[in-house]
UniProtKB/TrEMBL annotation:
Residues 18-154 form the Prohead serine protease domain. This is Prohead serine protease domain-containing protein. GO terms for molecular function: peptidase activity. It holds the Pfam family Peptidase_S78. The keyword Protease applies. Keywords: Hydrolase, Protease, Viral release from host cell. GO terms for biological process: proteolysis. The lineage of its organism: Bacteria, Pseudomonadati, Pseudomonadota, Alphaproteobacteria, Rhodobacterales.
Length: 181
């Protein structure tokens, strides 16, 4: 199976602090994204347990580029709402510094998970219900796919975030239209 990516804005309340710590939701359960996928509760459990047993971590990357790690996820867990992450941007790296400043300025508010689908089923509405995922990485990205999860720097205007979310949705729709044969 190929590595898949699922874009999401960081969850409610994600912020970057002065010491470049970020936290929030990378994925929300039960919500249909623009690719008509729905992550189900428990989809990450086996993957997270396997990583922990092997002493490994989910990677924090810049725009899915494996050559550009920008920090570390210190905590990645499922709760009732979704996949919650907490980590540190490494401001000792150029991209880490850039990412921290972009989040603080409100110019960057997206996350994308890199994963392999282990189990999924189609429902009667043509949606793919993702029941087990092998999580590889969580990236900071410009345009996320799941509009209801987002990142916000402290003091960001929620109405401005809605505007940027709408713009990202337009770009995603245009990208999908251009990809059609």
């Amino acid at each position: 199976m190929d590595l898949e990516r699922k874009f999401a804005r960081f969850g409610d309340g994600l912020s970057v602090t002065e010491d470049a710590v970020i936290e929030g939701y990378a994925s929300l359960f039960g919500q249909v994204d623009q690719g008509r996928d729905v992550v189900q509760k428990g989809a990450y459990a086996a993957s997270l347990a396997g990583l922990k047993a092997a002493g490994q971590r989910v990677k924090m990357l810049w725009q899915h580029d494996p050559a550009q790690p920008i920090g570390v996820w210190d905590e990645v867990r499922e709760d009732e709402r979704g996949l919650w992450v907490k980590g540190r941007l490494l401001e000792s790296t150029q991209k880490g510094r850039e990412a921290a400043e972009l989040i603080r300025a409100g110019a960057l508010d997206g996350l994308s998970i890199g994963y392999r689908t282990k189990r999924a089923v189609k429902d009667d509405k043509g949606r793919r219900l993702l029941t087990e995922l092998e999580l590889w990485e969580v990236s900071l990205v410009t345009f996320p796919m799941l509009p209801s999860a987002r990142v916000a720097a402290k003091g960001t205007d929620p109405d401005a975030e809605d505007t940027w979310r709408s713009i990202a949705e337009v770009f995603q729709s245009a990208r999908q239209e251009l990809a059609r044969p």
